[in-house]
Amino acid sequence: MRKETERQIFHLVLGTLLASLILLLGKFYSLALFGTLIVAGIFLSELLHKGIRVQPFTWFVQRLERENVRPGQGTLTFVLGSFIALVFFEPNIVFLSVLILAFADSFSTIVGKGIGVIKIYNGKTLEGFIAGFLASLFVVIPYLNMPAALVSCLVASLTELLSPVDDNIVIPPLSSLIIYIMTL
């Protein structure tokens, strides 16, 4: 559980950093940075997958990555999902969708694995689902009207719970679309 908690804290910090960079850099520079990170990340992942040690990345992967996944997969998919959302939506919307992903995913896992009891789907718990929903709602409520905040966070939490595709890729574009539609 300790490794997963550390991994989720990294996920939360990474998401907050990416969201902040989106606002700070704007659309063009964020796309350039994220595109560069994706290419570099794929290259590093391949090196690590082949057993080539590249510090400090090797240390991070050994400490934080889940078993039986490609090295750096979680970070790569997080940046990829953010990049996809940024292609189609404005930075202020993607900023919120990345925060939703960071908080919903991290809190649902930490609470679900830590104290979750009521299993609802695929080993995931009701307590984790509620924690992820409330954490993401708490973060975006200052920026959105209540219906947009509720719907975007609920859909993100349901996606985290049910999606057969990596939620790091799906949630930023999906949340961005919902926020865009509900704030027209």
Mean pLDDT metric = 93
* Total count of strands: 2
**Strand percentage:** under 5%
Could you list the spans in which at least 5 consecutive residues all have pLDDT below 50? Answer: none
- Note the quaternary state here: single chain
Query: Which structural category do the helix and sheet elements fall into?
Result: mainly alpha
Straight-line distance between termini? 42 Å
Notes on the structure:
The structure is a single chain. With 184 residues, this protein is an all-alpha fold. The protein has one domain (2-182). It has helices spanning 2-49, 57-64, 73-88, 91-115, 126-140, 146-162, 167-182, and strands at 119-121, 124-125.
What keyword list fits this structure?
mainly alpha; two-stranded antiparallel sheet; 184 residues; single chain
Topology:
Layout: H1 2-49, H2 57-64, H3 73-88, H4 91-115, E1 119-121, E2 124-125, H5 126-140, H6 146-162, H7 167-182
Antiparallel strand pairs: 1-2
